[in-house]
Amino acid sequence: MSAAKNRVLKNASIMTVLILVLGFSACTKKLAGDNDPKQRLTDYINTSFSIHDTADRTKLTGYLTGGAKNRLVSWSDEQFRLAFVDTKRELLKIAVREVKPVTPNRTDVTYELTYLDQGRGPDARVTTKRMCEMTLEDGKWMIREVKNIKELIEYKNEITIVY
């Protein structure tokens, strides 16, 4: 075989390996997000703050199971629109405080959300601390329940704490 043919075959082999590696890493990255409870919860929160239509409800239900899913599915379109579409909320920060594996198929995630909520008043800054129970189903972490721990609402000139 000539040197030119060897180089072509070598380059083709390298390109094939690169394509396989890139393809595998793209698939692995998606699966890693599904297999990481912290990332899965963060994806859900980001999605919930970017809902534009009641038809987007299916985007959220894809992250939920159990009681959390049943509650969201049972809402009327009007309830969903008021909670997600018409809100004047702007996400500022997500901070995961603790990821606690309870069993191989259950993990509890404690997190804080900080967001602006114009619905509560001008320049109302809300910080909520919550605990999320997540269950591993078919290789994906799903949100089963979310419990509020505490909520802090800061207004421009005052602070109100609600438990």
Salient structural properties:
36% strand, 41% helix, alpha+beta, globular, 5-stranded antiparallel sheet, Nuclear Transport Factor 2, Chain: A, 2 domains, 163 residues
Q: Which secondary structure elements does this structure contain, and how are they paired or packed?
A:
Layout: H1 3-34, H2 37-48, H3 57-61, H4 66-74, H5 77-85, E1 89-103, E2 106-117, E3 125-137, E4 140-154, E5 159-162
Antiparallel strand pairs: 1-2, 2-3, 3-4, 4-5
What does this structure look like?
The protein is an alpha+beta fold. 41% of the residues lie in helices and 36% in strands. It has a five-stranded antiparallel sheet. A hairpin with a 2-residue loop joins strand 1 and strand 2. About 13% of the residues have low confidence.
